[in-house]
Design goal:
alpha+beta; 22% helix; six-stranded antiparallel sheet
Length: 328
């Protein structure tokens, strides 16, 4: 049994424990509130860093990006390429059998489909009697094929396969698609830099006295000549830059490289389209619409590379980032 002094000591100890507990709870509540407040501040700051621009502008870029994703998934998009098969002069038998000159995927096509005939600068096809190949929804047996260099190419189909003739330099090849390709099924999106209206830049179109020839290399290792009527001059962070623009109908086409290439973005540069200059020579360069060339998605594309004039000593932190799900 406790004596009176022992009881007083016990009461004092209990009071001190209660007081310490209250102090600890106050401290913990303060810490919790501080953490919540910091999270809120960081979230607000992060949100501001993610996007910059008016709601209308941000929505416009998002719509552009969504349309880009939709187009990639289409039958004529870049996600379903499964082959680029070069033709030799003369006879080129094709089908899934390994003895063919042009080999189509096994399980997707008959062993022997038919024969391509490359004669000079034209390609004809002859389909074997027991094979049902379509062109424009109709069964064909023999026909001349229009290449992409001549206009809208002739597209042939069998099952989920689609193919047509492409011309690159003096070479003719068969571009083969599978509309059921795994990349089409698994593709969801492309990561982009945060939308930032600071990268919507007004440029001045500096027209040359007469069009100039420029060399445009490509992923195949060859170089093609193209023509440009001028360059776009713009300022960023107090420095002047310029980009050579190629004429593409009602638009200007720009292939450029920058200091993000090989790290955050594709190593071989990106593409950008703009409207033609207005009467005052003004052009809007919106790098939020800078996008990856098709070679990011497939090794069967024949992408042009940036001409030497279009290497920017600038990190363009806008537009599409590198895509890591392609077949490289």
């Amino acid at each position: 049994m406790l004596t009176l002094p022992d009881k007083e000591i016990k009461v004092n100890i209990l009071d001190k424990i209660k007081e310490k507990t209250r102090e600890t709870m106050k401290t913990n509540n303060f810490i919790l509130l501080t953490v919540i407040l910091l999270q809120y501040i960081l979230s607000a700051c992060s949100s501001q860093l993610k996007e910059k621009g008016s709601a209308e502008y941000i929505n416009q870029i998002k719509q552009w990006h969504n349309k880009r994703i939709t187009n990639l998934k289409k039958e004529n998009g870049w996600l379903n390429l499964i082959g680029l098969l070069w033709l030799k002069q003369g006879e080129n038998k094709f089908g899934s059998d390994k003895t063919n000159d042009i080999i189509f995927p096994e399980g997707k096509s008959p062993a022997f489909i038919g024969t391509f005939y490359l004669e000079g600068s034209g390609v004809k096809v002859k389909i074997n009697n027991d094979v049902n190949v379509l062109a424009d929804g109709k069964q064909i047996k023999e026909m001349k094929l229009i290449s992409d260099a001549e206009g809208e190419p002739t597209i042939l189909s069998y099952g989920s396969l689609r193919w047509f003739v492409i011309k690159r330099g003096n070479r003719f090849g068969i571009r083969l698609r599978d509309i059921e390709a795994p990349l089409v099924k698994n593709f969801t999106d492309i990561e982009t830099f945060p939308i930032n209206s600071d990268w919507r830049i007004e440029a001045k179109f500096r027209k040359y006295d007469k069009p100039k020839k420029i060399e445009v290399p490509n992923i195949l290792g060859s170089v093609e000549e193209d023509s440009t009527s001028g360059e776009l001059v713009f300022s960023k962070d107090g420095k002047l830059f310029s980009l050579v623009a190629l004429d593409e109908g009602n638009s200007l086409f720009i292939i450029f490289a920058d200091k993000t290439n090989g790290e955050e973005t594709y190593g071989a540069g990106r593409f950008l389209y703009t409207d033609k200059p207005d009467s005052a020579g003004k052009v809007i360069l919106d790098f939020n619409k800078a996008y990856n060339p098709p070679c990011v998605f497939t090794k069967y594309a024949t992408c042009p590379l940036p001409p030497k004039q279009n290497y920017l000593d600038l990190a363009v932190t806008a537009g599409e980032k590198m895509f890591h799900g392609g077949a490289h």
